[in-house]
Amino acid sequence: MLQPPGRARPGGCNNGEDGFEGVASGNIFGTYLHGSLLPKNPHLADLLLLRALRRRGFSRLEPLDDSVEMSAHRSVRERVKSR
User: Are residues 19 and 40 part of one domain?
Assistant: First the structure.
């Protein structure tokens, strides 16, 4: 069975009821993109890049300074929580 990779705010999810959004299976990720998914979720961007690099024989991804991106991610999460 395919699993959703995350939760969305109420009304913005797969079925409008359970809060889950998208689907993930192995290296396949699917979601209805509305807005900036990757810039606001740098951990997902890193995961996708790492998996792509592994397919080409690289074993790791050198860490970058994600402080600005993580700040944007936290800001969006806090805004959604306060609704």
Answer: no
CA-to-CA distance for 19 and 47, rounded, in angstroms? 22
**Which one-letter amino acid corresponds to residue 2?**
L
Range(s) of the domain holding residue 71: 36-83
pTM for the full predicted model: 0.58
- DSSP-derived pairing of the beta strands 28-30 and 23-25: antiparallel
pLDDT by 10-residue block (mean), the chain, 83 residues: 62 62 79 69 83 87 84 84 78
pLDDT at residue 13, as a whole number = 55
Amino acid identity, position 19: G
Kind and range of the H or E element at 63?
Answer: none
Backbone phi, psi, residue 37, to 5°: -65, -55
Count up the domains in the chain and report the number: 2
